[in-house]
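Model: Ready when you are.
Researcher: Fold this.
Model:
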Amino acid sequence: MKCPVWFLPFCILTLAAGSAHGRVELLAPEDNAVLPSVPAAQRVVMAKPTQGERRSAAACEQGPWGESASITVSWRMTEGESGPWLIRIGADAELRDGKDWWILKKVLIPDYSGVYKYTLANANLVPGRRYWWRVWCNVKCSEWECGSAIGPNGCACGKTGPAPASEIRTFIVEDVPPRWIALEGRTKNMRDLGGWRTTDGKRVRYGMVFRGEAMNDNSVSGYAPGRNRLAVEDIAFLTNSLGIKTELDLRTAREVSGMKGSPMGPSVAYVHRSSQAYKSIFTPDGMKAMGETFRLFCDRKNYPVFFHCIGGADRTGSLAYVLNGALGVAKEDLERDWESTFYPDIPNVVDNLTGQPFTDSTYWRSSRHFDDGFAKYAKEGDTLRDRICAYLKACGVTESDIEQVRAIMLENPANVK
């Protein structure tokens, strides 16, 4: 049928909408590629064997710090389509419940060879895991009444089929902790306590315990909670994707005045345990708080747990040191996890002139306080884990409690897919 001249524009649009689209050709990363879990600067620093060497290296390295390594993907369209685009990464080959990145057409411009490239920052992936990914050329529905974006299953009205899609490829995230967690709101310094190897060949499970800054500010008035730091989308991510069931708040009663529940909402149990840091965990008040706090981790129904103080550094770092230490993580890795909060400005460990530790009056953030404190609970030949467990028993924790936490938190790396 011949199209009348006056109707020609509509005919052209209709033919264009009904014509076949080109294919999306994935270029990078290659199938089965192993991608870094932490940025290069942090990896260089953490590879150094001593705190002093890591501090010197951090001063010379350029960030980014306190975040996971970004992932850059690239592709080409065989027929020159120009988006918009949809990128999905999922934890299974069918890409169910994957994370999506919708990219407007005007955001991406191909290079001279027609290659599109996009960097996915802070994807919150788990180190050591395999992921699958795909790219769609997200054209619009041809129906005038609909006009919506076409996703993997078609448009909203169902009259236009799925958008042109690439093959599904897979990659593996390198198994190097820590796993940083990025939120949209003001809560920072959040990471998974998992990933560290123990001296008996186990690994601390990812996705069970998280540490970070507070999810709301300290109370200003002394009777009302501080302002919420979370964005709306953070709450869904924390409660659905991470599945957090318990918030453990280590701040003082004054800091949490007026708190009745978690900023993450009623689905998360809020537990307040005013706690101490560094050498103060060995005082009577510090030991009482540590015993009460540790027993929270003995009950499987409390997991996943998110614990914090206000900045996620000192009180939070001290509890993290004890938890992972009781699991059997080596001293060097306990220090690496603590230092990750401060990169690139790791607090002084030794006097650069004398090579000796600073005195307590000028030197308060270091594992020296842990060394001195746990040494009081040591017998000849004891490991650091032995000393930490002896300390916990002095706090009222039983051997059965410790073994229960180990059963929940440890896994055999060989069984991890």
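Researcher: Now this one.
Model:
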Amino acid sequence: MGPKKVDGVGVGLIGLGTVGTATVRILIEQADLLNRRLGAPLTLCRVADVDTTRERGLDLPPGLLSADVDGLLGDPDIDVVIELIGGLEPARTYVLQALQNGKHVVTANKALLAEHGAEIFAAAEEHGGDVAFEASVGGGIPLLRSFREGLAGDEVASFFGILNGTCNYILSRMTKEGADYEEVLAEAQSLGLAEADPTLDVYGLDTAHKLAILVGLAFGARVDLADIHVQGIEAVTPLDIKFAAEFGYRLKLLAIARRQGDAVQARVHPTLIPDHHLLADVSGAMNAVYVTGRYVGQLMFYGPGAGGGPTGTAVVADVIELARNRLAGAAGRVPPLAMPWSRLRATPIIPMDRVTTKHYFRFAAIDRPGVLSAVSGILGRHDISIEAVNQKGRQVRGAVPIVMLTHEAPEKNVDQALRMIDELEFIAAPTARLRVEDLDAERPD
């Protein structure tokens, strides 16, 4: 058994990895400050992890760390349970058990909330518990609290997010140095900025999990994660980054959400944005979200999106918030998604083939007369008008690049046109395609 709670609020933590270690360090080293801010003792009663022997650089009181999760979940001295093991199971089981036992929950687990949020938030409402998850999106940026409370009097029209530090680091390096994707990914792995298996990050799944959470907060919407269009950065080339820059654009992996009548757009994909926009300057492993509200106008949130210190800070901020609620007898004062779970609406996501955007195309064409007119003709027959074109004189892998920017066109039309163009005998490789968002024109309806 660890320390006993004295009067104030008792805390238990499950998962002593990078974020868990940072969280425990903050709770121990900042104990006096946290107690003064809370106005009562905040006691770390138990820590549970499958590995109780690994050196973590922490001076833990005797008996604090064990592998006994059940004991932690059932400990009457523990009021707030912090879940930091990640993944879907057993995290889901632990969170639901904590809520059923009358405890509040803090988690950084975006995948869990994106996949099982409906079950967890309904359980919190049923059992009178709070669920806080600031650290699940944007690391150390106080982003979710701003959506939930700071923008409670406004109506969010749209937001665009750089939500994955690994992808942003890779694209930043490719943009600055012209390096290949595989080369930069390997470097990111060696620096600890990318996982040994980077699939969740580079294929856009991590960003999609975060987008699903933000859509619920921003729009009061229940959405199905499976309906979010997701495309990663694995096919991005330095060549397209360079050509796009000549048109005045920079490439970012964006989480994009917009109100559209009674539905929403929610999509994740590499996106060209104007190189003078604030989001274009977000480099390295940093995160940022650009929000447009009906009354407030444009806001941008920026900061470290990952790492033990920043994420642990967000976890501890949630602990303090829930501890204050506990002491005031005000659990549920601010619902997790800004409104009671029962008030959220099942909201359809606009199918991708009905989304309208501008596009960047790079055609790999064999150099012969009539190529440009044939390509332009197919685009025209599909109601895709050309904004700018640049036909490069030099060959790339035996073909001459033809680079185009289009005006807005429906995805369905673009898909059909590119299928026809790629079947032409003088097109040497599948067309490279990137979507374009001119964020300067973003305004609330």
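Researcher: Key takeaway?
Model: The chain is about 35% helix and 25% strand.
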